[in-house]
Amino acid sequence: ILSKDRDLHFDLGGGNRIPRAGESKARSIAELRKAGIGADRVLLVQHDSRHGMDVFQSILTTLDPAVEFKILVLPPEPDTPSADARHAVEEQARQVARKVTIESLKGDPGPAVVQQAREGGFDLIVLPLPDELDRARQIVVPPWIQHVLQNAHCRVLLAANPVLPTDLVE
Questions:
Q1: In the chain, is it the N or the C terminus that has fewer CB atoms within a 10 Å radius of its CB?
Q2: 111-164, pLDDT tens digit by residue?
Q3: What burial letters (b/e) apply to 104-118, b meaning 16+ CB within 10 Å?
């Protein structure tokens, strides 16, 4: 029974009602997804570099296999050798029997990522922060990441690789 100020329901025989956000009746991740909570489709943007592969592996091992997973590979930086990320992603996904879609990004990545996310109905975009961050200073993101942050229709997660230790261990 629904009204402007009341939502009354009864679950008979276990019920088949979809839980709402914040409701404690959900007993599994699948039930939360049925209620529209969480991400069913994730778009990862990664560099064609060893650091990019580290981010991919973290996301691959974190996501439930039921979540659709697409990877957009950025070209390597000038004067930087390719890590052949596309081939490495395909091989690792095959080894763990995980279906992934992989595409190479060309041109201005900001608008391309926003368009891919919108057209693909993605719920979450994972973007790489630059590998060489000076963590002692304010983080400044590249213009293409700023474009995605300002124009994405869904949540955006910024991923940073760990900082290499600068102190000596005795």
A1: C
A2: 999 999 999 999 999 999 876 666 677 888 899 999 999 999 999 999 887 776
A3: ebeeebbebbbebbe
